[in-house]
Amino acid sequence: MVGVGVAEVQLVVQSDDFGMCHAVNVGTVQAFREGIVTQVSTMAACPWFTEAAALAREFAIPVGVHQTLTCEWDFLRWRPLTDGVSLVGEDGTFRRTVEEAAAGVTHVDAVRELSAQAAKFAAEGLTLEYLDFHMGSSVPSAYDEVSAALGKPFIYGADESQRFASIEVLSDRDADDKKPWLLDYLDKLTPGVHLLVTHCAAAHPELAALHRPGSYTYRWAEEYRLSDQAIVTDPEIHQAIKDRSIQLTTVQAAFAV
């Protein structure tokens, strides 16, 4: 999948939330094997992480740690790997929003938790290629400290993010708009390394059970993920990348980290 040599335009296509649930794991593997996804961000604190790790090993998927300090769903709730009191809400699981986490999580608790997530990742025999975060920036200083300790890039950091010519998210767009948007995006890519973030999942009933009807996260459960899945596995998109001589790559390959 990843191109050989250096092209003027390089594209990293990332799929987030690997390990969150079985539907995400199945879809992500398909998106990597049959689509344009080149690297995958993995959630070590989530219930289906062990399966995700096994799949990453089996299919040699380039993976990073999706540093997790939040859990947005109504019915799929996950807990920290550590015992930091500031990490959790009243139910003992991660806080639901980035804003809540930013207001309540301490630097010390965040560093301990994110370090534990990276250690669990490594214990599965996975090679860490990069770090990013889930949902948004809750404790910026913690991401920087953990990245420095591990010697791997935090790709949304102040310096590392500047290495990309652009960073875009495919997911939070109306389904009918995604394909024309992506084709236009590919047309306009300039020389350099670009990052496109997606959220893939297979069409399993599990996705509809993540949230209450009308929840603020409802579009992220099924709608965004299933439409992302369709787009990244669309042969026309793959052909468009080939026709434009865009090189699919990973952070590690593009920046030799």
Per DSSP, the total helix count is 9
CA-based gyration radius: 17 Å
Coarse structural class: alpha/beta
Strand content of the residues, in percent? Answer: 15-25%
Mean pLDDT: 96
Helix percent band? 25-40%
Which ranges are low-confidence, i.e. pLDDT below 50, for 5 or more consecutive residues? none
**Topology pattern, helix = H, strand = E:** EHEHEHHEHEHEHHEH
Number of strands: 7
Describe this structure in words.
The protein is of the alpha/beta class. Helices cover about 40% and strands about 15% of the residues. The protein is built from nine helices and seven strands. Strands 1, 2, 3, 4, 5, 6 and 7 form a seven-stranded parallel β-sheet that branches. Helix 1 packs parallel to helix 2 (about 50-60) and helix 4 packs parallel to helix 5 (about 140-150). The chain is globular and about 50 Å long. It comes from Kribbella speibonae. It holds the Pfam family YdjC.
In summary, what is this structure?
Its cofactor is Mg(2+). The chain has 9 helices and 7 strands.
Topology:
Blueprint: E1 9-18, H1 22-34, E2 39-42, H2 49-59, E3 63-67, H3 98-104, H4 107-123, E4 128-133, H5 140-150, E5 166-169, H6 175-188, E6 192-198, H7 218-232, H8 235-243, E7 247-249, H9 251-255
Parallel strand pairs: 1-2, 1-6, 1-7, 2-3, 3-4, 5-6
